[in-house]
Amino acid sequence: MGSSTTKPKVLALGYPDYAGDAYMAEFEKAFTIDVLKPSDRKGTLEGVAAKVKESGPYDALLVLMGIGPYEPFDEEFLKPLLPQCKILVSCSAGYNEFDVPWMTKNGMWFCNTRSAVSEPTADMAIFLILAVLRDTTRGEKQAREGKWRGALPPTRDPTGLTLGIVGMGGIGKHLARKAQVFNMRVKYYNRTQLSAEEEARYGASYAKSMEELLSQSDVVSINCPLNEKTVGLIGEREFSQMKDGVFFINTARGPIVDEEALIKALKSGKVARAGLDVFDGEPKINPYFIECDRCTIQPHLGGLTDGAWKAAEIECLENIKSLFSTGKPVAPVNTL
């Protein structure tokens, strides 16, 4: 850790502006922040190595949102920071881009953000649910082309429909709570069942199997994390288990869904419409989703709000503060 006579040094991939001037002024009384503006992977790797050589060593690494151009955070990326760097904190909730086992082996704590983006992502899911139910993408296309409604048929009301949530973590719980406002029935499938008290709080009933959830849901929303067990979780078999004309939402991660299977389901009508905020291979998007007017698409905007970024940056910095004041971060992913 840092010397007793000098402030611990934090290398930040971008300055945490959203944390606010007052918070940062207080933080920088105890820590020195050096900022590296990241670029593509090659440029960022070179920048990190140069920073360490010129201004290091660093005690902590702060990673802001928007890591796509220079991920993953593996041995090649992180090795120049050793042995001094004792913690990496990320403003993202997901962490499949981070080699946590390697960090653990090399004595580095890793912390993601547990809740900063949960409610904004649930808001995005609600937006996409309403968009696909009300067929707003085709409606907007008609209006922009000067055709008014054209031949659009009546759309669907959310009232009385069953929303099936795959993954009842923080985002899933926020989504369940918000869905009640639209008079939707909520079922969920999760590794572990919630307590009766929590189920009552969120108005949600437990499905004992994925098949049970999919077969009974009018709207299916993917809200589980991406890991080895969830890659390709929703494929041809799962789409076949869904109701005909189901509405499908993904605000989790693209690789959880087999996109070719989703496209097949859209073409057959098994999926009436889809709302997608995430894609396999993003920022590239399969051309079918761009061209299909039964798909409402967003460029992974779920956590892209000022409130989410502020909360994420502060949560990261609090983990750094805790490590240097207590010897352990507030909420580490790994154990050393």
From TrEMBL:
Pfam family, one: 2-Hacid_dh
Gene3D superfamilies: NAD(P)-binding Rossmann-like Domain
Record-linked PROSITE patterns: D_2_HYDROXYACID_DH_1, D_2_HYDROXYACID_DH_2, D_2_HYDROXYACID_DH_3
Highest taxon, organism lineage: Eukaryota
Protein keywords: NAD, Oxidoreductase
CDD domains on file: Mand_dh_like
GO molecular function: glyoxylate reductase (NADPH) activity; hydroxypyruvate reductase [NAD(P)H] activity; NAD binding
GO cellular component: cytosol
Ranges for domain D-isomer specific 2-hydroxyacid dehydrogenase NAD-binding: 127-302
Domain D-isomer specific 2-hydroxyacid dehydrogenase catalytic residues, every copy: 27-334
InterPro entries per UniProt: D-isomer_2-hydroxyacid_DH, D-isomer_2_OHA_DH_cat_dom, D-isomer_DH_CS, D-isomer_DH_CS1, D-isomer_DH_NAD-bd, NAD(P)-bd_dom_sf
Family, per entry: Belongs to the D-isomer specific 2-hydroxyacid dehydrogenase family.
UniProt protein name: Glycerate-and formate-dehydrogenase
